[in-house]
Design brief:
The protein is an alpha/beta fold and 294 residues long. It has a single domain (3-275), classed as Rossmann fold, CATH 3.40.50. It is 31% helix and 26% strand. It is built from 10 helices and 12 strands. The protein has helices spanning 3-11, 53-60, 83-89, 105-110, 125-137, 153-166, 183-197, 216-222, 240-243, 246-253; strands spanning 15-24, 27-37, 42-46, 68-73, 76-77, 90-93, 171-175, 208-212, 225-230, 233-238, 255-261, 268-275. α6 (153-166) runs parallel beside α7. The longest helix is centred in the middle third of the chain and has 15 residues, at 183-197. The radius of gyration is 21 Å and the shape is globular. It starts with a helix and ends in a 19-residue tail after the last strand. Mean pLDDT is 88; it is low at 1-10.
């Protein structure tokens, strides 16, 4: 177990993976992964395509059964916990959720209350408050009666996050929540994610958020705890300032880069250079274009 994982445990970690191995049929995707998710913080998982980021997130939400090891919630394996209790503890927003045709914003957000429903306990004042609060927190109250189909990408993502908030779970898993969004909407969604983990005015700890992002600079800017993966294994984890180095970018992404402070936040900012090649590699000069003088 890495020192950063030990540190996460010491600061509190309700959700953890122990020697987690994940596979699709005969193909192993994640290898004996240890991870302690720090409570009340934003944990961002980064890495190249097909390195196991989303697969790990699915396992943390019990959408994928481990081939080996386990995911633990409050020290108990997810496999031993009733589904309803998990749904009341962990909210999971997949990469490309699909809304029923013509459903309104308020109706979609209300679906987040399903884990709290039963045949003897139907819609209650507590459900109404949860939906109202979730819509206010995500600034979608004015959209309540509009069809989800009519919304912009950023608005739609905020509605999906509102549904997850209405579920009233302490743990929230988001798989690439900025996919297909332009830069303005990406920032809008990530600002919201950052707010969700921030303590309330009364000092109440914020939600624990685990998200997968492709943009390393956004990850470094918004994460409290950064996890870098490659080929199904954790290469480094910890504070972004400790994790994001030129050496890590080269090792994980195969890219030469210069790391400078973000002029706004001070977080590490990756400035790409040429793709990494061995120092001994040499390349022929480009051939001159016919008819042009050198």
């Amino acid at each position: 177990m890495s020192p950063t994982t030990d540190a996460a445990q010491q600061t509190g970690s309700r959700l953890a993976a122990r020697a987690l191995t994940l596979a699709y049929e005969d193909r192993t995707v994640v290898h004996e992964l240890d991870l302690a998710v720090p409570d009340g913080q934003v944990t961002v998982i980064v890495g190249p395509n097909a390195c196991g980021k989303s697969t790990t997130l699915r396992a943390l939400g019990r959408l994928l059964k481990p081939r080996g090891g386990a995911v633990l919630l409050d020290g108990t394996e997810l496999a031993r916990i009733p589904t309803k209790r998990i749904a009341q503890s962990i909210g999971l927003l997949p990469q490309t959720p699909v809304a029923p045709e013509a459903i309104t914003v308020s109706d979609l957000v209300a679906r987040g209350r399903q884990p709290h429903q039963s045949w003897w306990q139907q819609w209650s004042d507590a459900d109404e408050r949860a939906v109202t609060d979730a819509m206010a927190r995500t600034d979608v109250t004015a959209l309540a009666e509009r069809s989800v189909d009519e919304l912009s990408g950023g608005q739609r993502q905020r509605v999906w996050i509102a549904m997850a908030l209405a579920q009233e779970t302490d743990l929230l898993l988001l798989d690439e929540p900025t996919t297909y969004l332009d830069i303005a909407h990406q920032v809008e969604v990530l600002d919201l994610v950052r707010q969700l983990a921030s303590p309330d005015a009364d000092g109440t700890r914020g939600r624990t958020v685990v998200t997968v992002l492709h943009d390393l600079n956004q990850a470094a800017r918004y994460a409290d705890h950064l996890v870098a993966m490659k080929a199904g294994r954790i290469v480094a984890e910890g504070r972004p300032g400790d994790v994001v180095t030129a050496e890590l970018v080269r090792e994980v992404f195969g890219l030469e880069a210069v790391i400078v402070p973000d002029p706004v936040t001070g977080s590490p900012l990756v400035v790409p250079g040429a793709p990494w090649t061995p120092a001994t590699a040499s390349f022929p000069a480009p051939a001159p274009t016919p008819g042009k003088a050198l």
